[in-house]
Write a structure and sequence with these properties.
12 strands, 8-stranded mixed beta sheet, DHFR-like_dom_sf, single chain, globular, 196 residues, two-stranded antiparallel ribbon, Dihydrofolate reductase family protein, alpha/beta, Dihydrofolate Reductase, subunit A
Length: 196
C-alpha cells in the first residue's frame, strides 16, 4: 500500500487560505521560476524553481488518488472534471452536487473521511493518496489515517483564515525529522508521521 499524505501550501502562521478562501501570496511560488511542471491536467502548467520542480517530480507522480472536501470542490468547480493531481478524486460531502456538468469525470462523492480514505487507498493500490489540507487533514489525523505531511511553507503571515489542520482535536502526533527542500518563496517540509 502507498502512503496517505496530507498536503497544502501553508502560511507561516498555519493558514491555507484567508477567511474568504483566497490564497493571496501563498501560491506565488507556482509561477515564479524557470522550470515548467504539470500535475494531471496538461493545460495547467506551473513555473517553479529548480528545487521545487525536483521536489514536485519526486512526489506528485506517486499520487494516484486525491481526497478533497466539498468546499474546495465548489471553489474550483472540481477543476472542471480534471483532477489537479492523480487519476481519481474522492470528495467528502454529505450532499453530492445535483447538476455538476461533468458526470463522467473520475470523481466519487463519499460521506466521511474514513470512507474516503478507505476507497482512495483501495483505488490507489501501491500508489499514494493525498488529502488536501483543512478540516479533512485534522479529521484524518484524529483517527490515525495520515502517514506523511507535505507542508509547503510560504513566507507569509495571513493573520486569520482556514487552518491547515482545521479544528484539530486529537491525540499528540509526533513527526520524524523532515526532508527539507528550499525553493523560491516556498520551503517544502515533508514529514513522516512517527509510528513509535
Amino acid at each position: 500500500m502507498g502512503n496517505v499524505i496530507a498536503t497544502a501550501v501553508v502560511s507561516l502562521d498555519g493558514f491555507v487560505a484567508d477567511p474568504d478562501d483566497q490564497v493571496g501570496p501563498l501560491f506565488d511560488w507556482y509561477n515564479n521560476g524557470p522550470v515548467e511542471v504539470y500535475g494531471t491536467d496538461p493545460d495547467r502548467a506551473f513555473h517553479v524553481s529548480t528545487a521545487s520542480a525536483e521536489y514536485i517530480r519526486s512526489t506528485w507522480p506517486n499520487v494516484r488518488a486525491c481526497i478533497i472536501g466539498r468546499r474546495l470542490f465548489d471553489l474550483t468547480n472540481g477543476w472542471n472534471g480534471v483532477p489537479a493531481n492523480g487519476e481519481h478524486v474522492f470528495v467528502v460531502t454529505h450532499e453530492p452536487p445535483a447538476n455538476w456538468p461533468f458526470p463522467d469525470a473520475p470523481y466519487t462523492f463519499v460521506n466521511g473521511i474514513e470512507e474516503a480514505v478507505a476507497q482512495a487507498k483501495s483505488y490507489a493500490g501501491d500508489a499514494d493518496v493525498s488529502i488536501t489540507g483543512g478540516n479533512l487533514t485534522g479529521q484524518a489525523l484524529a483517527v490515525g489515517l495520515v502517514d506523511e505531511i507535505s507542508y509547503n511553507l510560504a513566507p507569509a503571515l495571513l493573520g486569520t483564515g482556514i487552518r491547515f489542520f482545521g479544528d484539530y482535536v486529537g491525540p499528540e502526533v509526533l513527526l520524524d525529522n523532515p526532508r527539507v527542500v528550499e525553493g523560491d518563496r516556498v520551503t517544502h517540509l515533508h514529514y513522516r508521521v512517527s509510528k513509535g
